[in-house]
Write a structure and sequence with these properties.
The protein is an alpha/beta fold and 440 residues long. It has 2 domains: 2-181, Glutaconate Coenzyme A-transferase; 197-438, Glutaconate Coenzyme A-transferase (3-Layer(aba) Sandwich), CATH 3.40.1080.20. Helices cover 27% and strands 22% of the residues. It contains 15 helices and 24 strands. The protein has helices at 12-19, 36-43, 65-68, 85-92, 106-113, 141-146, 197-207, 222-232, 248-255, 280-288, 298-301, 304-307, 344-353, 412-421, 428-438; strands spanning 25-30, 52-57, 76-80, 97-98, 118-123, 131-133, 150-155, 170-172, 178-181, 215-218, 240-246, 271-276, 293-295, 313-318, 321-323, 328-329, 332-333, 336-337, 358-362, 366-368, 374-376, 378-379, 397-400, 403-406. Strands 13-12-11-10-14-19-23-24 form an 8-stranded mixed β-sheet, sandwiched between helices. The protein has a 7-stranded parallel β-sheet with strand order 4-3-2-1-5-7-9. The chain has a 3-stranded mixed β-sheet with strand order 16-15-22, covered by helices on one side.
Amino acid sequence: MLSDYQSRFVTPEVAAAKAVRDGDWVDYGFGGGFPELMDRALAGRKGELKDVKIRGGLVIRPRIEVVEQDPEQTSFSYYSWHIGDYERKLQARGLVRFMPMILRFLPDLYRRHIKVDVAFVPVSQPDDQGYCGLGISNYAWRTIFENARTVVFEINEHLPKLQGVDGSHRAHLSEADFIVEGEHEPLPTRSYKEPTEIDVAIAKNVLQEIPDGATLSLGVGGVPFTVAKMLASSDLKDLGCHTGTISDAFLFLHKAGKLTNARKELDTGRSTWNLAMGSQEMYDWIAAEPELFRPSDVDYVHSPERMGQLSNFISINGGVQLDLMGQENAESAGTRQLSGIGGQLDFLEGAYRSQGGKGFICINSSRVDKTGARRSNIVATIPAGSTISAPRTMIQYVATEYGVVKLSGLTLRERAQAMISIAHPDFRQELAQYADEHFR
């Protein structure tokens, strides 16, 4: 079977030469999956190509060769759907262009609204029938490569080989125009800092709101990670996973015997996810026990309608700022992009739709800036230039180290009073004065 596709196996340099033309849009994908060999080969065409636009996002590896080899952008320019750790460094150098989006809309963008010429798709080693797994980044790959002119599969020997349920996480060698393979660096990993006292206080407040049998969507910040560690040592049981990014937070729950997925109405017994991002131990877990997972694409995982079919669906995410009406900035400092909205709106809406569901935005009540001054993260209004990532109508619960408030169903004045009650005490008086003047 594999011999049927031998003619499609070429070197990365040959694939880059034959696949990419002047003016093309080339997709690199999202998250920990990254076309390392094709990136290096394409960078080798610097000076030969013109106006090639690279699209990716949430890159956690330390280098993108087409960017680093061409900082003058004579041949290549890089565009990101979601600013990751490395991309923030590129942003400071003027080498990344940010594109706002809501993750669940991304497949429709590729189907109907934007152009994709070439897809560099990282895949696992194929089985005897020619099927490859999509590794740790399902993303919207199927939609993207089905709409691309030219498709290059890059076989990465380190990627987990799981193929999902009913092919939810696989692609076939026949779907590629070119196939490349070679030696790769170890998979990029992501670790977490030890939780602060404030992280622990916020997590304790949220923990009281989670029932037995809840299905969890956990963001990748410090508070969601701390919640998971506390859940692992709690009395709760039969927790489930339906999340955008599966991480070591869920591995902790699995090791503690808490992550059974037994009460999920959909994908019973399996953890559902779109991306995987964490330690090598977590990647090994996914590879060793594929029967425990339902990896799938954005259309499936990020569907609020599907989340609404799960009872007690709990979404936990972080934020940057919230104002007294409940509007949230999750991604920027003024006009400087810090990350992206990603799937946060998808999971907030899913929690609203779920019977017993709860969507939490978890935030430190204040921060200390570079000058040593304390600043409130709960503000009268989101400052001009900063992003309103989630409208006031989408925010259900807000948690700080001072408590948890539920905003849905409250008037503007009641919302302001609730937000003030969980603000840092140093700022409550001035916030109350603003509320008295503006929310009569």
